[in-house]
Design brief:
single chain; mainly alpha; Cytochrome Bc1 Complex, Chain D, domain 2; 9 helices; binds heme C
Length: about 190
């Protein structure tokens, strides 16, 4: 009888514990020996005996390129802008790409260049040296690679947009600009303006 009572108590306790620690998908499981599962990683700034300079963070080897980055071998000079115009060519563009280019234009370029590219954006209206019209002949005659260079490195009063606008988005915004520049040169009064 005593044994039965004892076993009943054990059973009740076990059922209780089982309910208590029942499946809770939001909670981590208990790990019996965590060091076996997770290696003791070095923290970024902790000392590290495995490297000659004793640091954990190491500089990447020389010449390493980050993933997804296209190296550009140009300087921020008019000569290299012209060279980019000869060497860099826009990739094929989809309507969705041009739509994306429109969004990029409205975010990053419209403030100075204006909605229609006429150089009358809100920033230019408040005293910033107004940029030349992007729908004038000079801009129409710019090679797309040269525009890519301008957006990447900036030009005179225009700052570089390399950190804000990815290379793919630069080509998209240029494709959108080409659309803004329709109809072709000479077809409207605006196009004749410098
Ligand atoms: C802070 C104001 C500002 C912003 C923002 C800006 N630009 Fe400019 N942009 C200028 C100025 C000023 C010039 C004239 C530079 C010069 O004197 O050579 C210029 C020139 C240009 C030219 C050359 C036009 C020509 O006829 O020579 C292109 C192309 C151009 N910008 C494209 C863009 C694009 C694309 C963006 C958005 C990614 C952009 N700009 C954003 C101010 C700006």
């Amino acid at each position: 009888m005593k044994l039965n009572l004892f076993l009943l108590a054990v059973l009740t306790a076990l059922v209780g514990i089982n309910l208590g620690i029942g499946d809770n998908p939001t909670r981590r499981n208990l790990e019996a020996m965590p060091e076996m599962v997770h290696t003791a990683a070095y923290k970024s700034f902790s000392a590290n005996p495995n490297f000659a300079d004793g640091k954990t963070l190491q500089l990447p080897p020389e010449g390493v390129i980050p993933r997804g980055v296209q190296p550009l071998d140009y300087a921020a000079t008019p000569e290299d802008a012209a060279r980019a115009g000869r060497e860099l060519h826009a990739p094929p563009m989809t309507p969705a790409g041009i739509e994306r280019g429109a969004a990029v234009y409205q975010i990053y370029c419209l403030p100075c260049h204006g909605a229609a590219g006429k150089g009358d954006g809100p920033v230019a209206m408040r005293g910033f040296p107004p940029p030349p019209s992007l729908v004038a002949d000079h801009a129409r005659n710019l090679a797309e690679g040269q525009m890519f260079h301008i957006v990447t490195y900036g030009q005179k009063n225009m700052p570089s947009y390399a950190t804000q606008v990815t290379p793919d988005d630069r080509w998209r915004v240029i494709a959108y600009l080409r659309g803004l520049q329709q109809p072709p040169a000479g077809a409207s009064k605006e196009a004749a303006k410098p």
